[in-house]
Each structure stands twice: as structure tokens, then as C-alpha cells.
């Protein structure tokens, strides 16, 4: 299914090197566009517009770049985002130019939904071990996220692997299919309690049997 696209207006950038610090002070963020078949370009845009676009697109949703002076828009993915370690502002973004008809790879977030009957019955919890799934798809068909329904975990020793995930028909998994996505973790206290309880029940039955044998002996 083709998703709604995110647009971002960019301008050509003349400020390069160490001088980009002055650019950032004015609220403008430097970006870089590269990719197969195109010449790398230094560009820029207001940081507020860039933050808004990235919040909607992340790194796996294509963004329509509207570059000043260009007749045609460019489809691209945000491939590397650099942050200011102190203020948390975006320092720089690298955009990878892509074609709508050529598959690309991306890391898609894995999101858990529902509850696991197996974890509930065993007194444990479902633990997520894989948080991103690498897949290939056409840029406009790349999923925003992959949902995992915990209701399928009905056994205490059950696991969900990458191969068990349901994906759209045109999306291919790159991650190892045997990779564990979710498993059930049972606390040690719960595991240790079961044999202790069984032992206690066995000790409670023994005196009744001895009493019966004593009565038969007196008869």
C-alpha cells in the first residue's frame, strides 16, 4: 500500500566547513544529498522544518525533497542524523536519493501489541529481544513499523521469531529469519516455587497413610 509522503523544502548551501556553526546559530541546519546516479549536493533548510519532517518520516519513510531551482522533486531517505550532544539539536542530516521503482533496504521498528496468555499463566512476562527489523521494499511501500501480536504466545516456552512476523506481500526480510523477536521470561522465584509446593503436598499426605497402616495393624 502506498503511504502518504512527507515533503521538505531545501535550498542550496554556500556555507561549508567550520563556517556551518554560524549557519546553525541562525536556526538553519546543513544537509547533504547523495546517491547512485546523482552528484552530491550541499543543501540547507530551517531546523524547525527539518525536525517536523523527520518526526513524521524517521529513517524508513521516504521524504519528497523540493530543492530550490530544481524542476523535479527528489525522493530520499534520511540515512544519518547527527545531534548536538549538549543541546540535543540536529547538527546535520545525510539524505540518500532513491527511486520509486527501485527497492531499498531499511530498518523498521518492531512494536508489540496485546498480551501473552502464556506469560500470564506462567506468572512471567514477554521480553522483546529484537527492536528493529531490516527489510527491503519499494520506497513508497516501506512499512512504518512491524506489529507483533503477543496473543500468539500461548505456551510458557513459546517464542516469536523473525520468520513468524506478518509483513506486506512486497516486503522482504533481510534479518536472520531465526532471530528471536519475543520470548517469555519467568522469574526464578516462580520457577523455584513449583517444586517446593509439590514437595510440601507430598509431605502432607504421608502421615495419613501411616495412620491407616497403624489402624490395620491393631485390627
Question: Can you tell me about this structure?
Answer:
The structure is a single chain. With 219 residues, the chain is an alpha+beta fold. The protein has helices spanning 20-25, 47-57, 117-122, 188-218, and strands spanning 6-12, 28-34, 41-46, 63-67, 74-83, 90-97, 104-113, 125-128, 132-137, 146-149, 159-161, 172-173, 180-185. It folds into 2 domains: 6-98, Ribosomal Protein L25, Chain P (Beta Barrel); 105-189, RNA Polymerase Alpha Subunit, Chain A, domain 2, CATH 2.170.120.20. It is 25% helix and 36% strand. The strands form 3 sheets. The chain has a 6-stranded mixed beta barrel with strand order 1-3-2-6-5-4. The protein has a 4-stranded mixed beta sheet with strand order 10-7-9-12, with no helix packed on it. The chain has a 3-stranded antiparallel beta sheet with strand order 8-13-11.
**How many E-type strands?**
13
* SS summary, helix count: 4
The second-level CATH architecture of the largest domain is Beta Barrel
> What characterizes the major β-sheet?
6 strands, mixed, barrel
Shape: elongated
How much β-strand is present in the residues? 35-45%
Strand order of the largest sheet: 1-3-2-6-5-4
Topology:
Elements (H helix, E strand, L loop, with lengths): L5 E7 L7 H6 L2 E7 L6 E6 H11 L5 E5 L6 E10 L6 E8 L6 E10 L3 H6 L2 E4 L3 E6 L8 E4 L9 E3 L10 E2 L6 E6 L2 H31 L1
Parallel strand pairs: 1-4, 2-6, 7-10
Antiparallel strand pairs: 1-3, 2-3, 4-5, 5-6, 7-9, 8-13, 9-12, 11-13
Short description:
This protein is α+β, with helices and mostly antiparallel strands and 219 residues long. The protein folds into two domains: 6-98, Ribosomal Protein L25, Chain P, CATH 2.40.240.10; 105-189, Beta Complex (RNA Polymerase Alpha Subunit, Chain A, domain 2).
Amino acid at each position: 500500500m502506498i503511504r502518504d509522503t512527507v515533503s521538505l523544502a531545501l535550498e542550496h548551501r554556500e556555507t561549508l566547513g567550520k563556517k556551518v556553526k554560524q549557519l546553525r546559530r541562525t536556526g538553519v541546519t546543513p544537509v547533504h544529498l547523495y546517491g547512485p546516479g546523482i552528484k552530491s549536493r550541499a543543501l540547507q533548510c530551517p531546523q524547525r522544518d527539518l525536525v517536523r519532517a523527520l518526526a513524521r518520516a524517521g529513517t524508513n519513510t521516504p521524504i519528497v525533497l523540493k530543492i530550490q531551482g530544481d524542476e523535479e522533486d527528489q525522493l530520499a531517505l534520511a540515512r544519518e542524523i547527527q545531534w548536538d550532544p549538549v543541546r540535543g539539536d540536529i547538527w546535520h542530516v545525510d539524505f540518500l536519493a532513491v527511486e520509486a521503482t527501485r527497492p531499498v533496504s531499511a530498518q523498521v521498528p518492531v512494536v508489540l501489541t496485546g498480551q501473552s496468555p502464556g506469560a500470564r499463566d506462567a506468572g512471567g512476562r514477554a521480553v522483546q529481544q529484537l527492536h528493529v527489523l531490516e527489510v527491503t521494499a519499494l520506497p513508497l511501500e516501506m512499512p512504518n513499523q512491524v506489529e507483533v501480536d503477543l496473543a500468539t504466545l500461548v505456551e510458557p516456552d513459546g517464542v516469536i521469531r523473525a520468520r513468524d512476523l506478518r509483513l506486506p506481500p512486497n516486503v522482504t526480510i533481510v534479518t536472520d529469519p531465526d532471530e528471536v523477536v519475543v520470548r517469555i521470561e519467568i522469574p526464578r522465584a516462580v520457577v523455584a516455587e513449583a517444586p517446593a509446593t509439590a514437595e510440601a503436598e507430598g509431605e502432607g499426605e504421608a502421615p495419613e497413610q501411616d495412620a491407616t497402616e497403624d489402624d490395620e495393624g491393631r485390627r
